[in-house]
What we know:
This protein is of the alpha+beta class. The protein folds into two domains: 3-40; 44-182, no CATH class. Helices cover 28% and strands 21% of the residues. The chain contains three helices and eight strands. It has a four-stranded antiparallel sheet with strand order 3-4-7-8. It has a two-stranded parallel ribbon with strand order 1-2. It is elongated. The N and C termini lie far apart (96 Å). 19% of the residues are buried.
Amino acid sequence: MSILSRSLARGLTLVELIVSITVIAAGVAGILVVLNVAVRSSADPLIQKQALAVAESLLEEIQLMPFTYCDPDDANAGTATGTAGCATAVEGIGAEAGEARNPTGPETPFDNVNDYQGFSMAGVVDIAGAAISGLAAYSASVTVAQQALNGPPAVPAAESLLITVTVTGPGSTSVQLSGYRTRHAPNLLP
């Protein structure tokens, strides 16, 4: 046998075998640490997604409401081109007396974007007031404020609202979404 063929056929030495086992073990240990962290926090994305879904649905509900100069219950709400055109009730920020998102008694439902200012709920309920299964540990709050938009075209503060929805879930998970509602169709009533 030649020297070359003997060196190819000899295999691994004990030192080479121990070094390779050590390197492989260190790599596997690193992978297991990463998997452990991923498994421990795997429930967090679900909570975050649920909070985001609640915030998105509430923001969409609010943005779909009318944004009129007069309260939608006012006789001139469909024709007023400014607050001077209202017969009795100019729409302001905040709910009018006797209005609620999901009335349970003699109240009437919210009928304008402005009505949601200061709204909050502990435990998520739909617009009809029915509790949504699995979301009792979540809470939501809403702020509505006039906010000018710097265009183009520029929109004055009286014609634009900034809506901010904050949803808090288990484990201090918090999601905040903001959106705008402009008075692009001030006389549009449902």
